[in-house]
């Protein structure tokens, strides 16, 4: 005689099945509705996906480049032909986005985990006559699907899981899921990893974190913070600190962390074998001297690409309810800092982005997890408050679509016009967005921002000995009364119209007694005198 499931169990099973089916259909519709965006590190990932799909290895061959150029005519032809020519001539130091391995083969400097996942859907899409590089969208949405399942498990509620997934998409997911770059996949994998690791599936969570860390290496800090976060969620006062820590040291947990760390270590082993360094990108494209308070503030508060314009609704909600889970919030904030601090060393700070910088897309996930964990503890939700969070996030995403990464955002432009003394961007951001280019910031130049013909802000370098001659009349120098804000690496901002004074025995901006006069020089925006 068959045993029948209790009605409640049957109902829960059907609800979960309906959620999975509806989620899959929604993501399929999304996949079909939007074209792929050849963005981010597309130069590497596209040709590497073609290479893996063609001959099963990440080695870049001349035929792979030809095939990629045929799929993307004109997109990267100049750079690809340069790379082909250098490969044919046996140049050792090929175009910097690529490198020669131990045996002379050419590989992209980014690890091949992400394009490896795109290789199979690429072949399938190509066979169906569809744009092959939509394969990256398929990979991104596959991780979003996994995140949806993790949310359903975490909340044990389809409605709450749907809210969590919508909130994720409004926390930069909607900006990056179409990209041929792993920001959306890494963010979804990291958030799903936290959800699963803390809800009884540590192996699945650790493996997802390992996959995410392959493309964004600082995610490896998951293996330090995830057990601590799980401990904070299940804190037992009767055990004390030592007892709670011991509760995390189980065979299953240690095996999970070891497996995930092994997945995350694959790029390190690959780099050590072929290049002799743990991470070629760090060796080539980062400088620890760039890490400092200016960039840290920029990451969180910049009005063009900072976290504050990426997840304003989440941050506002955490400010309102954070005291209820202070231990968890503190841990997740430390986790976020661990993700961010090494990234501050990157040389190209103002890099290609869709509104909030790409690091924000995945480094903000511990804070989003904090909010979701706090919401899970509430027996009932306040629809009006949650609608407010979603509305603020939606407004942030709309704002992000209104400018390019070499332009000031509408919000930044508004502040520069009406309250310029309150905003001093990281110098690279100021110079490149003002000049509408992705170039170098040169200490010998003077960068001036004007609004309606009025000088609002001037960026100068302390090493520039010609400031007085460039900015004041002959025989005059900058007066000490100018509003000066010191920035990073010797740069400083002069706010407002400049004031000059007759030259005296002291150096630039050195006298405190001479009468000030208005500077006669009126430089156009971004010009060099």
TrEMBL record:
Q: Where is this region: Disordered?
A: 504-529
Q: Which domain of life is it from?
A: Bacteria
> Where are the membrane-spanning stretches?
137-155, 161-179, 191-213, 219-235, 255-276, 296-321, 328-347, 359-375
Do the record's keywords include Membrane?
yes
Q: Does the keyword Transmembrane helix apply?
A: yes
Which UniProt keywords are given for this protein, alphabetically ordered?
A: Membrane, Transmembrane, Transmembrane helix
Low complexity bias (residue ranges):
511-522
What protein name is recorded for this chain? Glycosyltransferase RgtA/B/C/D-like domain-containing protein
The organism is: Telluria aromaticivorans
């Amino acid at each position: 005689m068959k045993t029948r499931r209790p009605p409640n169990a049957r109902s829960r099973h059907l609800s979960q099945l309906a959620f999975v089916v509806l989620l899959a259909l929604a993501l399929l519709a999304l996949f079909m509705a939007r074209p792929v965006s050849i963005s981010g590190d597309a130069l590497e990932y596209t040709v590497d996906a073609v290479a893996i799909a063609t001959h099963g290895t990440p080695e870049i061959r001349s035929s792979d480049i030809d095939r990629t150029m045929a799929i993307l005519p004109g997109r990267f032809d100049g750079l690809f032909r340069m790379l082909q020519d250098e490969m044919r001539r046996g140049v050792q130091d090929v175009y910097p986005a690529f490198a020669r391995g131990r045996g002379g083969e050419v590989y992209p400097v980014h690890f091949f985990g992400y394009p490896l996942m795109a290789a199979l859907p690429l072949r399938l899409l190509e066979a169906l006559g569809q744009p092959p590089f939509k394969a990256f969208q398929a990979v991104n949405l596959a991780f979003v699907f996994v995140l949806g399942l993790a949310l359903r498990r975490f909340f044990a509620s389809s409605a709450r899981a749907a809210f969590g997934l919508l909130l994720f998409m409004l926390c930069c997911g909607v900006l990056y899921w179409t990209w041929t770059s792993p920001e959306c996949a890494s963010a979804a994998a990291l958030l799903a990893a936290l959800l699963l690791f803390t809800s009884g599936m540590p192996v699945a969570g650790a493996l997802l974190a390992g996959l995410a860390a392959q493309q964004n290496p600082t995610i490896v800090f998951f293996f330090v913070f995830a057990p601590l976060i799980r401990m904070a969620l299940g804190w037992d006062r009767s055990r004390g600190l030592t007892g709670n820590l011991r509760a995390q040291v189980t065979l299953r947990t240690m095996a999970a962390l070891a497996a995930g760390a092994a997945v995350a270590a694959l790029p390190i082993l690959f780099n050590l074998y072929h290049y002799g360094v743990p991470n070629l990108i760090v060796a080539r494209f980062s400088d620890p001297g760039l890490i400092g308070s200016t960039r840290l503030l920029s990451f969180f508060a910049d009005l063009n690409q900072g976290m504050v314009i990426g997840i304003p609704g989440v941050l506002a909600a955490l400010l309102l309810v954070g005291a209820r889970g202070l231990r968890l919030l503190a841990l997740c904030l430390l986790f976020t800092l661990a993700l961010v601090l090494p990234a501050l060393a990157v040389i190209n700070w103002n890099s290609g982005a869709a509104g909030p910088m790409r690091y924000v897309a995945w480094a903000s996930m511990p804070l989003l997890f904090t909010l979701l964990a706090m919401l899970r503890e509430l027996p009932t939700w306040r629809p009006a408050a949650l609608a407010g969070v979603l509305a603020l996030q939606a407004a942030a995403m709309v704002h992000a679509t209104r400018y390019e990464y070499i332009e000031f955002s509408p919000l930044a432009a508004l502040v520069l016009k009406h309250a310029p003394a309150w905003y001093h961007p990281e110098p690279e951001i100021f110079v490149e967005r003002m000049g509408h280019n992705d170039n170098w910031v040169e200490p010998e130049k003077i960068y001036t921002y004007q609004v309606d013909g009025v000088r609002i802000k001037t960026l100068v370098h302390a090493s520039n000995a010609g400031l007085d001659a460039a900015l004041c009349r002959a025989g005059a120098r900058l007066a000490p009364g100018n509003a000066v804000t010191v920035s990073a690496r010797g740069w400083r901002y002069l706010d407002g119209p400049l004031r000059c004074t007759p030259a005296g025995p002291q150096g630039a901006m050195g006298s405190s007694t001479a009468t000030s006069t208005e500077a006669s020089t009126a430089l156009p925006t971004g010009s060099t005198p």
